[in-house]
Amino acid sequence: MSAPRTIHLVLIPDYLTAGGLTGQITDAYLVGDVNRIPGELRTDRFLDVNDPAIRRTVMQMVPKVLRASVMTPSPAFYRRVAELRDDCFFADLTARLLMSGAEVTIRSGLAQNRVPKRLKTCLRQIAEDGAHIVYLPEEPSARSAPTLVTAAEVAACYRQGKRELEAAPGAIITPYARDEAKELGVTILNDKGGSP
């Protein structure tokens, strides 16, 4: 008879998200790179992946893991899990957890409507393998490209820190808008150079 599954793991492959976990994780083992994880998360339940003995211990824990959470991994992580590659510890561990029947949640850090096409296939495969993928709330669709571009729109684009303003194909671009764009260093996309 197999041992009961009782372990909860939180995998932190990307140190950028670790700070938000402070004080939130109490019942789980945190698995990450000691050089990239804030000190307040390095408790007695922190497992440093730089230590080969700890890596082996974590892999031996797989059959006992009830659930695991993966915190905002890099895009390459998804491809590695989908392809069952073992050249990344976190991807290999995640694939093994899925194969063992553990409940795996991946907090993607992406809005579903912003997932690049090449990544969608990998995410779909991982979800089919049993992972629950959590997306950020949907971002509102970009407003449609203007059919009339004025100097005011160019200036607003510049104030927002953008250096490109997308115009609808065939849009009317006023001479003042072109002058303003040139002065501010804003590129008007789809500008065919015609006059209004």
Helix and strand topology:
Layout: E1 7-11, E2 29-32, E3 46-48, H1 52-61, E4 65-71, H2 75-82, H3 89-100, E5 103-111, H4 117-128, E6 132-136, E7 148-149, H5 151-159, E8 164-166, E9 172-173, H6 175-184, E10 187-189
Parallel strand pairs: 1-2, 1-4, 2-3, 4-5, 5-6, 7-9, 8-10
Helix pairs in contact: 2-3, 2-4, 5-6
Describe this structure in words.
The protein is an alpha/beta fold. 31% of the residues lie in helices and 22% in strands. The strands form 3 sheets. It has a 6-stranded parallel β-sheet, with helices on one face. Strands 7-9 form a two-stranded parallel ribbon. Strands 8-10 form a two-stranded parallel sheet. Helix 2 crosses helix 3, helix 2 (75-82) packs across helix 4 (117-128) and helix 5 (151-159) packs parallel to helix 6. The N and C termini lie far apart (79 Å). The model has no long low-confidence stretch (mean pLDDT 83).
In short:
The protein is of the alpha/beta class.
